[in-house]
Specification:
The complex is a heterotrimer of chains A (414), B (414) and C (563). Chain B is an alpha/beta fold and 414 residues long. Chain B contains 12 helices and 24 strands. Chain B starts with a strand and ends with a helix. The two termini of chain C are 26 Å apart. Chain C has 17 helices and 23 strands. Classes of the chains: A alpha/beta (414), B alpha/beta (414), C alpha+beta (563). At the A-B interface, helix 1, helix 3, helix 4, helix 16 and helix 17 of A face helix 7, helix 10 and strand 15 of B.
């Protein structure tokens, strides 16, 4: 019989056999018993919601969207996607001011960078924090990442002519964080890519990847941004340039959440969207590029696998690159969620849950007694730095620092 | 990326093979698409408890009664004993303490009060050489208030049938009652995450207060998710001997075993790709040269040898279509009955023919594709054909011994 | 509750607790008759529990059987009122596929209107908007007032109401003979299926509502009724494929109705004559599965890849007209036989034929006849009196789905409200009684206990019919042992509960087997590991129950109830 040969159902929740493995690995469930857990919130609840949308449970907003349930599922059920899609489809509660502010990284960033010193000072003042806590519900323990005085984009404009000399080209998706808060990471990326013979260009237009808007249910804005980004990415790919980012969350969102949650088709360019560590590691692994490191670089670090990195299965690339640095001692720790989940942990009502989830990770980082934690995600960085006091860096920055630039250029025939 | 051996499937069989190969300084990667069936381990590992429905008391002596294509016959009856010893040693090296030896059947108490014959019993799990030779005169079966996956009255019935006096008690801890805020989530693993530290001390006080003249306390096996630390702590605080009875899923002992084996494998230098799946293989001259995975995209993973340990239907190692059973990764040849009606017996409890289905292998566990042997791709564990793991009580035994057998072969080959 | 201490003399004994029997017992009791309802297994164990659960608008019969169609639409409107907690007002479509004759549509609509059915031709595009699962290639669509009705709840509600009006109920009691005296039926001889004990029950009148098994009951009085068992097979899909009933607009044929029922969807049916002896053990063949799928995909293409939970089959009691012993002229209409006038046997009525939709009307006819024979004059009130669970006059009360305020309830309480309507108030949810036993269908400990204590649930199969336990995706894998444990403790007999558990798992497997591929086979393998491996459950080594005693579950197994 030709029927029923393949389950190609869009209703992927049917694959669930109720084994409950996902419930073991849900970080929220471990600390917050109000959350019904991935099995109930995802595939079980979905059957009921299909029967009657009134079965939608408001507790679904407690999901971090870390996708650890999906990684654990032996039946390939996209549990996290089911939950996020249900929130979009069935939760008619409109996001409040606080959520809009937290989610509008681009809009806030472009205003704040212009007045960076004032804004930074304001946001770090205790009274301001207390007011934000009391009025809009941004937890007072949190510090907003400082805004840079000059955006990465404006710095890149000056660098554009330098980038034309390289034999290969890539497009860089810098993301809001690099642009408004931490251009240094972008500069490290350019340094690394240039050293291995790649010139860096910006996309024609770039908007926030949308992860914060998705989790705060600003879906139409997120979809608009996503469509713009994919158009820009298409244009870059058409020029023969892969698109590379330095934030695992941005890259994960553009590769997987666009089609699965927003319904924005990216099938033609998905394979051309890379994370920097994957791109560089593949080149090195295939022997196309060589890295030479400074003999005087010494550091003891551990690598924290961000949840979205875990979902993409790309931690191997960052780890393998780190292992290539002779002076670097890599202490393994067990992969665990840091609890921040983007804007989730900034919300007053989630602060306690967020810190409870992260505790296991914080303890293992402190026990590892390392100089730095390496990770590919900026929100993990804020969370870990705030909670452990250990500095956190992107693998690109470590590579850029450890690299013997001249020797590397030479080794790559530049 | 290049490895000596790539193992597809990260359950009991894949991990044991991985550990043995990594111990021999091989570069090994395990690719696994989600967590494994090891999560349902009953707390014991069977070698062979029945042949053709007849119980056996000496597994080794009974091997000759098995059919020719049975995996144990491919290993060779003469080598089973030494391999069984080695398999147990590998588990011990990973920190999994087991009790028992291959020449002697032990009996494990089940959550419904039956005595199940088995081979290795994990530390702390209630078992004895024979129900009639149980060392206890009187036992107290303890459950947690509101926990539905353990059946103390039934366990007590099982004890009484073995001539042991039994009484039941319920313990109510507010920290566990809190789990019930979500009406589905009082699960074994959720309980295990709470029963640590201070809560464990409270439990010890409750248990010590039970009094009575029993020698042993039987608890549901819901303590110690990552290591034996909690069970050891609890025993140190409680006067009476504590033994654990498995519960219906999730098996905390299984999660613990999975986690310990994986950590040990990674400590030995192995690479564990969790949540990834092999999308296709590149074959040439009757050999598997390399594989692609869903997450790594264009990155190929190459190896001298490959091991297929993707399990049975549960783990998607085999997929049943209406008219055929297929091996979905490489399309390997499968031993099966063609007619849909002939796969099954109408009696749920009768031997089911589909349980014996699996990939065809030669005497060295090499698989075949289109009738031709693939020289460097071997299958291990429950994807193998020719055994009825359930009726023979041989599932975990085959997983362990085929892993050791194939790993030994690969070590001596190169 | 099943035990009647003394053996009172009844006005009426009703044989068979399907919808018709339960409805007849209710009607008789409401009219003041002293009633005993006897059932050899469990409520709904026969055809009542094995059909589409379709709240027919009657449109399906409009062209071929005007009378049935008119009866259906009247009862349809009645059930919406009196059994609102059993009914889901989904609406229905009759769609014409490219291969079908669009000309039939006009005849169909005209016939519907004649029968009083509000059938409205709509644009196929609108049909797709109303129900996106429908085949996009349809060339015609008609909207009709079809709906879904849960036969288990409906029957249980009738039984409860009969009891409230003084009826006695005996399940697991088989009628082994009709007591005859001077050419008159004076009662029944019953065998308790569990103990094997027999006893006689006297009544002025015996009403045979045993469906196809009524053939055998008649034979006990030496009466021949030409019944022809017609097997109908159905498939259950894992979730709601459609939210509106989809029918094919053509002469009734195989697999042309797709009904959304609670959390699932059902496609059916096939139709084939089977020997009477096979009625007790219906098995779905691979050919039937293939037909259902092939035809089903025509009306809803997504069935081609949607997970199938199980297959089952029921037996329609078709009755040939008395003047046609060959059985060629079959009526699907109601057949009410007064055996005094037909066969010269006093004190005995058979009511059969008909369909789930007309159960109440059948009960009314039978009770009218009973009253006439017994010289009573009470009016029938079943068409206007709401059933337990639907008792409310306030249209905003929490009896149906889609009401705002249920959102604040726990998942299990919301689900229970859908199942038991206003009777949910009797369910205890406090102190861990809200813990879920069945996670797929959200059945709590409290609901299980309620069903055992109040709804004549003696075993797991009974519990499934009362609560949907084990009817969901995992088919009992996670919940069966939890429920067995509660059952054993509630009934004070754990050995029996373990035997029940084995029977239940076998009963679940029977329905999964015909469609055991893909994740359905995975589920079965998982169940096997869990019960036979982890739990070491083996029916062969279970402690033997006394030989004369059978558990109710074993009784069920003799008949292997399927759905």
């Amino acid at each position: 019989m030709e029927l029923q040969v393949k389950n190609i159902s869009p209703n992927n929740f049917e694959q669930c056999i109720k084994c409950t493995i996902c419930t073991v690995y849900c970080p929220v469930l471990s600390v917050n018993p109000d959350y019904p857990g991935p099995k109930q919130a995802g595939p079980d609840g979905e059957r009921y919601r299909l029967k009657d949308p009134e079965f939608y449970d408001k507790a679904l907003k407690m999901c971090l969207n870390c996708k650890r349930c999906e990684v654990a599922c032996p039946s390939g059920v996209k549990i996290g996607d089911i939950i996020q899609t249900a929130r979009i489809r069935y939760d008619h509660h409109r996001p409040g001011l606080r959520d809009v502010i937290l989610a509008s990284t681009d809009e806030m960033g472009s205003i704040a960078t212009k007045m960076a010193p004032v804004v930074n000072t304001m946001l770090s003042l205790k009274p301001v924090k207390v007011i934000m806590d009391k009025t809009i519900g941004v937890d007072c323990h949190r510090t907003f990442p400082a805004y840079a005085g000059r955006t990465f984009e404006s710095w890149m404009k000056h660098k554009a002519p330098d980038q034309t000399v390289y034999p290969h080209k890539v497009s860089y998706f810098h993301g809001c964080y690099v642009n408004y808060n931490y251009p240094a990471l972008g500069k490290d990326f350019v340094k690394l890519m240039n050293a291995i013979g790649y010139g860096v260009e910006l996309l024609d237009k770039e908007r926030c990847c949308g992860v914060a808007k998705i989790s705060n249910k600003l879906i139409s804005q997120a979809t608009r941004d996503a469509e713009l980004n994919i158009r820009s990415i298409r244009a870059a790919v058409a020029k023969g340039q892969p698109v590379i980012g330095t934030s695992s969350t941005c890259i994960f969102t553009m590769r997987d959440e666009y089609p699965h949650v927003l319904g924005v088709d990216n099938a033609d360019v998905r394979d051309s969207i890379y994370l920097a560590s994957k791109f560089v590691h593949e080149l090195v692994d295939e022997g196309k590029v060589k890295l030479v490191f400074r003999p005087d670089f010494h550091r003891r670090v551990t690598y924290h696998t961000p949840c979205h990195m875990q979902r993409m299965g790309w931690a191997i690339h960052s780890v393998e690159l780190l292992r290539m640095i002779p002076g670097l001692e890599l202490v393994p720790i067990e992969s665990a969620c840091c609890g921040i989940a983007g804007t989730y942990g900034f919300k007053k009502e989630n602060y306690a849950t967020s810190q409870a989830i992260g505790k296991e990770l914080f303890d293992s980082i402190l026990n590892a007694s390392v100089d730095e934690v390496v990770t590919d995600c900026e929100t993990c960085k804020w969370q870990i730095e705030m909670s452990t006091g250990v500095p956190v860096v992107n693998p690109v920055s470590i590579l850029a620092e450890a690299l013997d630039v001249e020797a590397t250029r030479k080794a790559n025939g530049l | 990326m290049i490895y000596d051996t790539i193992i597809i499937g990260g359950g009991l069989s894949g991990l044991v093979a991985g550990v043995k190969l990594a111990s021999a300084k091989k570069r090994v990667a395990i690719i696994t698409s989600g967590q494994s069936a090891l999560h349902f381990l009953s707390g014991s590992i069977g070698l062979l408890s029945a042949v053709d429905g007849e119980p056996v008391s000496d597994p080794i002596a009974s091997l000759e009664k098995l059919p020719e294509n049975h995996p144990y016959n491919k290993i060779g009856a003469g080598r089973i004993s030494s391999m069984a010893g080695e398999a147990a040693d590998i588990l011990k090296a990973a920190g999994i303490v087991v009790d028992g030896n291959a020449g002697e059947t032990r009996y494990r108490l089940t959550p419904l009060g039956a005595w199940e014959p088995t081979w290795l019993v994990m530390d702390g799990i209630a078992s004895c050489p024979h129900p009639s030779k149980c060392p206890w005169r009187k036992a107290t079966v303890v459950n947690f208030h509101g926990y539905l996956d353990f059946f103390p009255e039934y366990v007590a019935d099982g004890l009484r049938e073995a001539g042991i006096e039994a009484e039941c008690h319920e313990v109510k801890l507010p920290e566990l009652v809190r789990l019930r805020k979500s009406c589905s989530e009082m699960r074994a693993a959720s309980i295990a995450k709470i029963l640590r530290g201070e809560v464990l001390r409270k439990l010890a006080i409750e248990l010590n207060a039970l009094g009575g003249d029993s020698e042993v306390l039987l608890l549901p096996a819901v303590i110690g998710l990552k290591s034996m630390q909690e069970t050891e702590e609890l025993q140190a605080m409680v006067k009476k001997t504590i033994r654990y009875v498995p519960v219906i899923p999730m098996s905390v002992a299984g999660v613990r075993a999975q986690s310990m084996l994986r950590n040990y494998f990674e400590k030995l230098g192995g690479t564990y790709f969790l949540g990834d799946s092999v999308s296709r293989g590149n074959f040439s001259d009757g050999r598997l040269e390399s594989v692609h995975t869903a997450n790594l995209g264009e990155t190929v993973l190459e190896a001298d040898d490959f091991i297929l340990a993707t399990g049975s239907f549960f783990s998607q190692g085999l997929v049943a279509k209406p008219d055929a059973i297929v091996e979905p990764v490489f399309g390997l040849d499968v031993d099966q009955t063609a007619e849909r009606t002939e796969r099954y017996d109408k009696n749920f409890f009768a031997p089911q023919r589909y349980m014996r289905f699996g990939v065809e292998t030669d005497k060295e566990f090499r698989v075949s594709r289109g009738g031709k042997t693939v020289a460097n791709l071997r299958a291990i564990g429950s994807i193998l054909s020719g055994a009825d793991p359930l009726k023979e009580g041989s599932g975990a035994g085959i997983a362990l011994l085929s892993a050791v057998c194939v790993a030994r072969k690969l070590i001596t080959l190169n | 509750m099943d035990k009647t201490e003394s053996t009172p003399h009844y006005d009426v004994i009703v044989i068979g607790a399907g919808a018709t029997g339960a409805g007849t017992a209710r009607d008789c009791a409401m009219r003041g008759l002293k009633v005993l309802l006897v059932e050899r297994f469990d409520f709904t164990a026969g055809a009542t529990g094995r059909n589409h659960g379709l709240l027919h608008s009657g449109a399906r019969y409009a062209v071929t059987d005007h009378e049935s169609a008119a009866e259906c639409i009247r009862e349809n409107m009645t059930l919406r009122k009196i059994a609102s907690h059993c009914v889901e007002e989904t609406g229905g479509l009759f769609v014409t596929l490219p291969d079908d004759d669009l000309g039939y549509q006009a005849t169909f609509v005209e016939s519907c209107h004649k029968a009083g059915i509000n059938a409205e031709i709509i644009d196929p595009k609108d049909a797709l908007r109303i129900e996106p699962a429908v085949n996009p290639d349809i060339i015609g669509a008609v909207k009709v007032p079809d709906g879904a009705v849960d036969p288990f709840r409906l029957t249980t509600a009738n039984v409860i109401d009969a009891k409230r009006h003084g009826a006695d109920i005996l399940t697991y009691h088989e009628v082994t003979g009709l007591n005859m005296s001077q050419g008159r039926v004076t009662g029944v001889t019953l065998r308790d299926q569990r103990t094997g004990a027999t006893r006689r029950m006297d009544a002025d009148l015996v009403i045979n509502t045993a469906g196809i098994w009524g053939h055998g009951i008649c034979a006990m009085a030496g009466i021949k009724v030409n019944m022809f068992p017609a097997k109908g097979a159905l498939l259950i899909f894992g979730h709601r494929v459609n939210n509106v009933v989809i029918n094919r607009c053509r002469k009734p044929a195989d697999a042309d109705i797709l009904v959304p029922g609670d959390t699932i969807s059902l496609i059916g049916t096939t139709s084939s004559r089977v020997p009477y002896e096979e009625c007790d053990n219906m098995e779905v063949t691979p050919q039937e599965v293939d037909i259902l799928l092939r035809e089903g995909c025509q009306i809803a293409p997504s069935l081609a890849y949607t997970r199938i939970l199980r297959a089952y089959a029921g037996v329609r009691p078709l009755v040939a007209a008395d003047n046609d012993p060959s059985g060629r002229s079959i009526s699907r209409g109601i057949v009410c036989l007064d055996h005094a006038t037909r066969d010269g046997v006093e004190g005995f009525i058979t009511i059969t034929g008909g369909k789930l939709m007309t159960y109440r009307l059948m009960a009314e006819w039978a009770t009218d006849l009973a009253c006439k024979k017994l010289g009573r004059t009470a009016e029938c009130r079943t068409a206007t009196t709401r059933l337990p669970g639907s008792e409310t006059t306030d249209s905003d009360a929490p009896v149906s789905h889609g009401k705002r305020h249920i959102i604040e309830l726990g998942a299990d309480q919301k689900a229970a409200l859908g199942r038991h309507g206003t009777m949910t108030a009797d369910i205890e949810f406090a102190d861990s009684n809200d813990a879920l036993v069945c996670e797929c269908e959200e059945v709590s400990v409290g609901e299980i206990r309620y069903a055992i204590r109040e709804l004549h649930a003696h075993n797991l199969v009974n519990l499934r019919r009362r609560t949907r336990l084990g009817m969901g995706t995992c088919q009992g894998c996670l919940c069966a042992c939890r429920a067995a444990s509660i059952l054993g403790n509630e009934l004070g007999d754990r050995r029996q509960a373990l035997t029940d558990l084995c029977s239940f798992l076998n009963e679940r497997w029977k329905g999964m087997l015909p469609v055991a591929w893909g994740q359905t086979l995975v589920e079965a393998q998982f169940s096997s590991w869990l019960y036979q491996g982890v739990c070491g459950l083996d029916p062969k080594v279970l402690p033997a129950v006394r030989k004369a005693d059978r558990t109710s579950a074993e009784c069920d197994q003799m008949q292997q109830s399927v759905k």
